Amino acid sequence: MQNIYKNIVIFIILLIIACSEGNTQKEIAFKKDAEIKIFTNDKEILFDVELASEPLKRMQGLMFRYKMEPNQGMFFTFEVIEPQSFWMKNTYLSLDMIFIDENFKIVQIHENAFPLREDHILSDFPAKYVLEILGGVSKKSGVEVGNIVQLINE
To answer: Does domain 27-153 have CATH number 3.10.50.40?
Structure first.
């Protein structure tokens, strides 16, 4: 229960910061922390990723990004394995959200999340990790539910 209250407080703080910054928010530059390899049926796909393991980094996510390369993304890690919820507030890029279980198996893909939407995107299955990449890249690359993911720390 304490974890829920802590997350609510962090969310409120970020919301206040986001609202107070208005349209003066500068773009956040990509910073590679690690690599993600996805094993499809016929190939391996490599993404450079930023890691979002801390609550503030997870809540910021890919907000205020105006460009990203097709081989880049953000890899979220969560302490609790449960259905994960995301939204697109202040996110200017269409994204594919790849939900991954504790065994690094893709359990769901939400394709082409619409930019700047505030409705929640909730996974249908419990997930411990989520990989966000540019919208349409998962389909174009052949990424599918059931593929295995490997995190390669730098």
So the answer is: no
Q: Where are the domains of the chain?
A: 27-153
Greater confidence (42 vs 8) lies with: 42
60 burial (CB, 10 Å; 0-12 / 13-18 / 19+) is: middle
Query: What confidence tens digit (pLDDT) does each residue in 64-112 have?
Result: 999 999 999 999 999 999 999 999 999 999 999 999 999 999 999 999 9
d(CA 33, CA 75): 10
Contact (CB, 8 A) for 131 and 101: no
What pTM was computed for the model? 0.83
Q: Which amino acid is at 77?
A: T
Closest residue by Cα to residue 103 from 124, 86, 125, 74: 125
